Amino acid sequence: MPPTGWLNDPNGLCQFEGIYHLYYQYAPDDCFGGDKYWGHYSTKDFITFKNEPVALFPDCSLDAGGAYSGSTIIKDNKMYVYYTGNVKYPGKHDYIHTGRDHNTIMVISDDGINFGEKVCLMKNDDYPDDLTLHVRDPQIIKNGDHYYMILGARTNQDVGCCLLYRSDDLVNYKLVNRIISNEPFGYMWECPDLFCLDGRLCLVCCPQGVEPMGTEYQNVHQCTVFCLDYDFRENTIRLNSQFPEMVDRGFDFYAPQTFLDEQGRRILIGWMGIPDAEYTNPTVKAGWQHALTMPRLLHMREGRLLQQPLEEMKELRRDRRDYDFWELGKGVETGLVFEACLSMESCSDMCLTIRDDVTLSYEDGLLTLDMGTSGSGRTRRSVLLEQLTDLRIFSDTTSLEIFVNDGLEVFTTRVYGDRPGMRIKGKCCGTVSVYELSGFIYE
Question: Of the four listed, 19, 97, 211, 322, which is most buried by Cβ atoms within 10 Å?
Answer without folding.
Answer: 19
